[in-house]
Amino acid sequence: MESDEVYDPSRAGAELAVLRSQRAALADRAMQPWWYDALLGLLLFGFVSSYSLHSTWVTLAAVAVFLLCLRGMVALYRRLTGFWVHGFRQGPTRRAIVVWVVVVLAVLGTGFAAEERWRGAMVVAGAVLGVAVALVSRRWTRIYVAELREGL
Which pLDDT score, from 0 to 100, does residue 151 have? Predict the structure, then answer.
């Protein structure tokens, strides 16, 4: 495709500077408050711990509450920051999610196996995952913010 426009290096530099400042502003808004991560950890703890009660109805109610609260947290993050970031995006953040999924599966598998023998093992698994998700959420956001800052 041809263009009759003349390349203007000063204009290109100015546009690049604007893009950098916009990404920096986005990075400043991206970090959620500390209580957001703590709330996420508490929600996961409650959901996973519900399995220790060995009641299908309690577990179904916990799933419903967990999913509704997650939906509310997404809406809250969007209201606080003005945007939402997909977790499986390209780059280091995707690797962090893959590691997180492996950890979750290992802890849940161990918790389910232990629950057969020791009632309450899923409470321990829930506590481990609750603390872990709060830490991982914080770390993931820091990785994302660093990507934004070094982007252009």
Answer: 67
Residues 6+ apart with CB under 8 A from 37: 133, 134, 135, 137, 138
116: left (phi over 0), alpha (psi -120 to 50) or beta: alpha
pLDDT for 1? 54
Half-sphere exposure of 30 (CA within 13 A, CB side): 22
The residue type of 84 is W
C-alpha distances (whole Å) from 114 to each of 5, 53, 58, 75, 146 are 69, 14, 20, 36, 39
* Average pLDDT, integer, range 61-84: 95
Contacting residues for 130 by C-beta, under 8 A, at least 6 apart: 41, 42, 43, 44, 45, 48
**How far is it, in rounded angstroms, from Cα 110 to Cα 121?**
9
